[in-house]
Amino acid sequence: MKKGLxxxxxxxxxxxFVVLAFVSFVLLKWDQKYDAPYPDxxxxxxxxxxxxxxxxxxxxxxxxxxxxxPERAKEAENGINHALIGGxxxxxxxxxxxxxxxxxxxETGIGKLTDGEVARVMRNSIGHDGRPIFPFMPFQNMSDYDxxxxxxxxxxxxPVNNYVEPTEYTFLGxxxxxxxxxxxxxxxxxxxxxxxxxxxxxxxxxxxxxxxNCVGCHSxxxxxxxxxxxxxxxxxxxxxxxxxxxxITPNLTPDPETGMITNWTEDVxxxxxxxxxxxxxxSPMPWGSFAQMxxxxxxxxxxxxxxxxxVSHKIEKTQHMLEVVSSE
Length: 328
Hints:
Order of helices and strands: HHHEEHHEHHHEEHHHEE
Low-confidence stretches: 322-328
Structural class: alpha+beta
Shape: globular
Strand content: 5-15%
Helix content: 25-40%
Strand order of the largest sheet: 4-5-6-7
Largest sheet: 4 strands, antiparallel
Distance between the termini: 65 Å
């Protein structure tokens, strides 16, 4: 009897030690810092570059929908291009991720940051203080010219003093950071200096993967780590924009049976984006920003999507509302 009690006590002690060690490790290691070289990218006052940056910010890169409070972000759906004052909140299991003020305000914005520090956030997902940035911005492989153009536009804005509370991590989020499941992600290869803006599959691939983040939302992924878990652009990523409303992204590959846009013509594809209309109330698609994209960009993306290898991945339903499902 005493021996059995001793064994139980020993096991309980070991378990308690393991739990305390785990908690201590997480609390000590979650706030680790990272480093990477600063990209040799400089902002410019050139009007052409500023115009390109503005187009990317409010169009294909859809920055306004995230770097604004919810009420202003909603107005972006109607084509209202607010200054990027930050304050967007993404409530996830790892915590409340908050977007930063991107106006050149010296106290609350990017006014004190160097061009290299801003470029490193975009290219390597490392904040100016060394913290890792959750993989929401797919700009690691964006061209030097486009990164410089975006920074040039951000510098050209009027500064807005708007303090945003820091991101708050849950214990789960801290554990993910402590064990390195979220690490800074750099370019896959040396990014291009500049891309040719033309109706081509090559330019479409660049936009879909390095600017508009079609691949990030229309691919199966682990939302904890950002890792892809299935064929890219085959759909299946689940979003829960509001409690009780689940949206599952459709398959964009040209599979004849399960691809959503397989039977769309190029003109139909362009017209759908230009309409800016939201078919599903809780779709995470930034239709307001994408409606501002040029026909050249939209036609290039279409050519790229139609050139993909078909993937058979049927998405039975797109939007789920409290067990009541809307068909595609």
